[in-house]
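Technical note accompanying the year-one report. For the benefit of new consortium partners, we illustrate the data format agreed upon in the data management plan: each record pairs a sequence with a structure-token string. No post-processing was applied to the example shown here.
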Amino acid sequence: MAVKNKIKEALGNIIAEKILYDEPMSRHTSLNVGGNADALVFVENEDQLIEVIRRLREKKIQFFPAGNLTNVIVRDGGYRGAILLMTRMKEISCENTPQDGYLISAQAGAALAKVVSRSAAEELTGLEFCAGIPGSVGGAVWMNAGAYGKEMKDVIKTVFLLDTAGGKKTMSREEISFSYRKTEFPADTIILGAQFKLKKDERARIKRKISEIMQSRQEKHPLELPNAGSIFKNLPAQAAGKLIEDMGMKEMTVRDAQISSKHANFIVNRGNATASDVLALIALIQSKAKKEKGVNLETEVVIVGED
């Protein structure tokens, strides 16, 4: 039985109106590239996500949970299985507790921009470094996203997970191992949300800091063209963008995929790039970095699907 039909059989009676079959992922990824997924499933809430995953696992159907697909490249051959889009799981709440102080809780699909905006409205500081990062809470926590000298590990209090048995699990910051652009969780767990510990500050000062960061991003990053954010992780002693620029690769193209003239760690889609074009450009950068600089550039973007 074709994978698409297996997905229809597994999910059709619980979420039929929220599934797109044979869906071009170029319509949904921030780079505007990617082949067709057998199914793109728009998940509404945690209970529905748990049931969807239970049924997919029961039928041994591959799935990929995603936030808003800002740092994901789906290969041109598409994705065999179901991509679970969690952007509708976007609840954000705030509380002041006697024991832990000010906390903001957000579901995995909540946009970081919304969480930053909510924290500013509540006069809470700590998340300003996330201003302008286009990702969702789940993806940011999963990769320990960071900028301007701070990372998610600096503000996380608790992460809420779905384990392989379909049960909800809570992990405190102390139980989690963080490293550069990586957070260690038990195998095959899925992030449902996170809780951030913040501090009170003046709203004007918080908004000023956010504004400064947003302006810096506008000046340095090619936000006017489709992109997937930083392509490579920085090296211990050098920024990946500086290394690529030093190799003379700024503005290099593979058809409509181009290394940005603004920031060499960004690849932009000038209009009709394919995932293969982007991946070919990534491979060229990695090959030259290895040959000329003796370093291995590791991708920060997530690459899924078939060639």
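Partners are asked to follow this layout when depositing records. The mean pLDDT is 95.
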